[in-house]
């Protein structure tokens, strides 16, 4: 998987520089989920590695994309609280660029996760 994702990055001309490795792992995770026999455990391992690499490099855009992928996976596995917990802090770091595709996608996912039946009550909900 990683080999295929790495080849994809090199072919696209992006290379696999420091920031690129987080994307390589994220793409490998997405591929693991889209394969004819999806492997959620393998995908989760790749996606968590993508998060770790992006965090180590302080690459917030890569971290956001990885967090979106992890949050989607966990949402689909019935873990909306964990999905919110991984995505919300990364999304909250951004102060501009909210018209970009990644931030729009993150916001939509957070909104959907917040409206899930097992979303915890906030002080706003209690009033």
Structure description:
This protein has 127 residues and is mostly helical. It has one domain (2-118): Serine Threonine Protein Phosphatase 5, Tetratricopeptide repeat (Alpha Horseshoe), CATH 1.25.40. It is built from 7 helices and no strands. α2 runs parallel beside α4 and α3 runs antiparallel to α4 (60-76).
List the helices and strands and how they pair.
Layout: H1 2-12, H2 20-34, H3 40-57, H4 60-76, H5 80-93, H6 101-114, H7 123-126
CATH topology: Serine Threonine Protein Phosphatase 5, Tetratricopeptide repeat
Named at the architecture level, the CATH assignment is Alpha Horseshoe
What's the number of domains? 1
CATH class: Mainly Alpha
The arrangement of helices and strands along the chain is: HHHHHHH
**Poorly predicted ranges:** 120-127
SS summary, helix count: 7
Radius of gyration: 15 Å
Overall residue-averaged pLDDT value = 84
Q: What proportion of the residues is helical, as a percent range? A: over 70%
> Based on DSSP secondary structure assignment, what is the total number of beta strands?
0
Tell me the overall shape.
globular
Proportion of beta-strand residues: under 5%
Structural class by sheet pairing and helices: mainly alpha
How would you characterize the largest beta sheet?
A: none
The end-to-end distance, rounded to whole angstroms, is: 49 Å
